[in-house]
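Here we describe the complex-level prediction in full. Unlike the single-chain runs in Section 2.1, the two entities below were treated as one system.
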Amino acid sequence: MEKNLIIIGGGPAGLAAAKSAYDAGERDILILEREDRLGGILNQCIHNGFGLHTFKEELTGPEYAARYIKEVLDRKIEYKTGTTALSIDKNKRVTCASEAEGLMIYEAKAIILACGCRERPRGAINIAGCRAAGIFSAGTAQKLINIDGYMPGKEVVILGSGDIGLIMARRMTFQGAKVKAVVELMPYSSGLNRNIVQCLNDFDIPLMFSHTVVDIKGKGRVSSVVIAAVDEKLNPIKGTEQEIKCDTLLLSVGLLPENELSRMADVNLSPVTGGAVVDDDMMTGTDGIFACGNVLHVHDLVDFVSEESEWAGARAAAYIRGEKAKGERVAIGAEGGVRYVVPQYALRDGEENLKLRMRVGNVYKNVRLCVVCDGEEVYSKKCMIVTPGEMETVSLNEKQTRALKNCKKATVCLKAVER
Amino acid sequence: MKEMICTCCPMGCRLTVDDSDLNDIRVSGNTCPRGAKYGKDEVTCPKRMVTSVVRVEGGEVAMLSVKTRESIEKSRIFDALALLKGVTVKAPVKIGDVVVADVLGTGVDFIATKDVAVGPHGK
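The structure predicted for the assembly as a whole is:
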C-alpha cells in the first residue's frame, strides 16, 4: 500500500503534525497509534496546567488532547488505533500490525516520528535491594490510578523530582495515600517550580535534595527503603542512611526518547538528547524521515510539543511536494552551559525564520543567552535564571536567521551579564 | 509571617509575607510586582483547581477524569475530593458534563474532562 505521509504516534506530537501537514495541502496522511484511542500520554495526565501558551487557558491533559483530536477528525485525517508500527526502514517502508487488520506494509513518501518517550526504569539506575512488589515508575502508577482505577500503594516514597513524580505525589495524596518523601539525587529539581509548590508544599510533603535510595527492603512487598545523602560526586555518604517505612517506591528519574524505530532506519541519534539529529525542517539525517515532540527531545510543556510538531508537519508536506530546501548545512553547536540545541543543523538556502530550543546543564542566574555566528553575537537575551528543568526557546528574526545561515560556525551559549 | 515560593516564573523567589495586619499585607523577597500579588493572594485566599477520577459504568474505559470547573479554596480540597468517593457515572459521557453539582456550596461543579463512549468496562 502507498501513503504520502505516515505519522507514527497519535499523541500531541502526531496530532499536531497531522493537522498542519493537512493545512499545508497534504491530503494522503495516515496516523498510526498503538493505544485504543488518540491522545497519547495526555489521556492519563488528568491534572490541569496544559495549554496556557496554545489556548491561553488552563486545560487538563485529556481536554488538551480532545482539542487536537477534534482538529484531526474535522479534517477527516485517516488514523488507525490499536496499531503498532513494528519496523521502518530508510526507504520509508512501514510495517505495522493490528488485531483488526493483521500485518500491513506501507510505502511512504515521508514519515514523521512522533512516538514520544519512555520512563527510565529501575534497571537503568542500579538501585540495590530486593525485587519485591511495590516498585513502579511514576507514569505506570499514574496509568493505574487514572485509567485503570487501581491504587498502587498506601505509604509512598518517590525517587526523583521530575514533573511526573511531583504530580504523582499529589495524586497519591488525593487518593488517600501518605507520601513520606520525595528524594532527589541532584541539589535542584528537574521539575517545574509550580509543581513543587502545588504538589509538595501544599501538602507538606518533604523534598530532600542531594539524597538517593541506597536500599529497598521487603519480602513479597516493599516494606521500607533506605535513603542516604550524597556528596558532590553524587556518591552516598556513609553514616547518613535513614530507613523510611513504606509499601511503594515510585521512580521519576528521567524520560528517554523512544527511538527503536529510528535506529532501524539508520536515523542518526544525538547522545545528548537521545533523539534524532535534525535540520531546521525537523528532518533527520535519513531523507524523508522527520521527528518531533518527545521522541526528538524531552519537553516539559505540551504546548511546545504542539508548536514544534506543527512545524514538522508543514515541512514534511513541503518535502512531499518536492519543495525541501537543499544545499549545505550549518551546524548549530551548544557551548558554555548550554547542553543541547534543537535543531542541530540549519540548511543554508532555507528561507524560514529559525526557532531554536535548548536546555542548560545547570542553574545559572543573571546570564545572557547568546547566538554567536563566526565569532559575532547576532542574538542575545537576558535571563534572570535558567534551569535544566525548563526548556529555553530562541526565536530568530529574518536578519538573525540570515546571519546564522550564512556563517561557517554557529553556537548557542550562555554569557555573564556585564555589570 | 508566612514563607512561600512564588510560582509566577522559573525564578521561584522565596517570599516572606507579613500577614499580621490583613489590611496591610507586606510581601518581601519578591523580584517583581507579580510576586507581591502572588504573596497577597496566597495568604488571603489561596485557590486551586482540583482534578481526580470517578468510576464509569459501561464505558470504553474504567475511569472518567474530572475537574472543578473553577478553582476552589485550597483548604476545601479534601472535602471536595470526599464527594467523589463512591460516585459512578454511566457512559456515554461528554467533556463538560456535570459529575457533581455545586461542590460544597461553592457554586462550582465537578465536570468531566474526557469523552467516554459506551464500552465493556464496569458492567
